[in-house]
Amino acid sequence: MADIVIITIVFSYAAFALYRGLRKSKKGACASCSQQKSCSAACSDSPVAASSKSE
């Protein structure tokens, strides 16, 4: 019985991690980053990086 519970927990977490990873990958590298506003290596196509380069 304990084996079934442990296996269920492991597979549930794996499914959650996969879902979270796919959701972040659809946003793109800079859009999914939590430090996108303060990142000095921001993507060149992001509006934050484009506005700071033109100044």
Uncertain segments are 48-55
Shape: elongated
Structural class: mainly alpha
Helical content band? 55-70%
Mean pLDDT: 74
Name the helix and strand elements from N-terminus to C-terminus, one letter apiece.
HH
Beta percentage is: under 5%
Number of strands: 0
Distance between the termini: 64 Å
Question: Which features does this protein show?
Answer:
single chain, 55 residues, mainly alpha, elongated
Description:
There is one protein chain. The chain has 55 residues and is an all-alpha fold. It has one domain (2-54). The chain has helices at residues 2-27, 47-54. Residues 48-55 have low confidence and may be disordered.
Concise structural overview:
With 55 residues, the chain is an all-alpha fold. The chain has helices at 2-27, 47-54.
How is the topology of this model organized?
Elements lengths: L1 H26 L19 H8 L1
Protein name: Attachment p12 family protein
Keywords: Membrane, Transmembrane, Transmembrane helix
Pfam family, one: FeoB_associated
